[in-house]
Predict the structure.
Amino acid sequence: MLMHWPGATREQYEAVRAIVKWDSDHPSGGKLHVVGFDDDGMHITDVWESEAHFDRFMQERLAAGIEEVGLDGQPDVRFVPLSGVFAPALDHPDQTETL
């Protein structure tokens, strides 16, 4: 899942994360979550077992957090089939890397 949310800020993301708590109460089917910010807003790349798993998470948990924080606009969300993963740092969980 690729998401671009123009205008969304790191502070808004952190507020939604604190409400939804996906990092401590993992959503069913969620495999990987990566987020970054630039002058154009928020960019997220997720790996899910299926689009249906993400849809369920959105409906049951994420939408309420987004509404509570008051994020403006709508994100551009696309789903593409995963063809491969290369994440050598994940092979070494004791290694922390800052990008």
